[in-house]
Model the fold of this input.
Amino acid sequence: MKKVLVLIGGEYHPYLEFSKIIKENFKDYEFEVTEEKNIFSTERIFNYDGILIYTDNKKFENLTEKEEENLIEYLKNGGGIFGLHSAPVCFKYNKKFQEVFGCTFLSHTSVFEFELKSNNSHFINRRIPSSIIEDEFYFIETKDGVNVLFNGYWHGNLLPLGYIKNYQKGRIFYFSPGHNLDTFKNPDISKIIKRGIDWITNSEKEEREIKCGIIGYGPAYGMGKYHADLINSTYGMKNVAFYDINKERVEQAKRDFPDSKTYTDLDKFLSDKEIELVVIITPHNTHSSLAIASLNSGKNVVVEKPMCIKLKEADEMIEIAEKKNLLLSVFHNRRWDGDFLAIEKVVNSGEIGKIFNVEIFFGGYGMPKEWWRSEKEISGGIFYDWGAHFLYWLLLLVPSKIKNVYGIVQKKKWFNFSNEDEVKSIVTFENGEVADIQASSIASIPKPRWRILGEKGGILQTDVIKVYKYENGITEKIIPPMKTEYFRYYNNIADHLIFGEELEIDIYKARNVIGIIDRTIESAEKGKILEF
Done:
């Protein structure tokens, strides 16, 4: 295990909280945290694979001659230094070390929102998009030899906010955001910091290209092309093959992607050694068998939502993937819907307190469309379409274990379709939270999409998102949706397969989505509450 020395200290930043975060989240490193700068004057620093500096105030703003000499020698010998946020203050008056490190600190603004721009040019910022953050904007004067990875717009100019530099055998990374604790809770920032540590300690992962094959090129919503375009726009991924039982659809795939291979024989498709990842875009009742066949052929698998129809199918899929040490993921891309992200942010902030009741509604009144999604034998039922999205969202908002499920099914109107006309699921969680989820094609009166009650307030979503709080009565405000970013799904798949990073879509939550629906229908049939 590589060892990293972390120098923290000062008055204005969450140093102790930061050190706890990296110790808890980056388990493949041994961190030694100190607030004593004079460790740089000792030979001990040559025992570390990397040094991270996150400091401020006068105690740290000048290196002694010995400290400066040792740090430069440490870099010459192949060491790595990561300067975070206010780190350049530590050598504010050390001109020689500034030249080696790559910048001189000038000043900074107060905290405000700005876009941290990422150029996707290096391991550290690969597949990390530009995004809005709230932090101090640091002004630095960069020296020769720096390679800027991050910058920000300031009064007509793009200014550097993060760079790498090589110095003889050593490596240097500077990243300016880091004033607030919330900054370090941002998943992108956390990833940047982890990768920065990886890079300065020579632990970065090698780039490679993931070759993908798509099963299913049906015309509905153009989903085959949609996935192929998403994959091909993701750095490090390329779709190279298509399979469909329909020869006309295969020919369409070839017209859309002339350089791709096409198959109408599943065995030949799965025998293609170039394909590392299979993406399944077919009717719901085929997901399980196609996923299992792909896993058994040694392929990683992404399956469109819903994962499958029956809970036992989900468990079998997971068991095979784990046994073969392969990726199994469900395309819950709407995890990155802007309106849901806004709701999730409010819930996670604690603004409305602990959730105790959630009501969800989707649907309306109207005859279903004449196709497979209206036929229960193929689709699984009315709950498996939008219900898969809402239930995954629910499980993100309520992390408690599911205790039991009670289902009610209505068949009142559309007798020429085998899907239910309406399904209601009441889910109780172990910590007392209750969720009421309703899907309907016979609801003649509208209902809010979300109604979330917490111990300090609540959230209501109709055409807008309103947040209510108990403050001298009840206060109310409208919040805007955040930016929808579906591209993050395949970014994360690539990061997992190439860099070994954690998957953002939890396969067990996807499994529990199927479990809730499966138990709901069974409960309705038996007329009783079922334990989960």
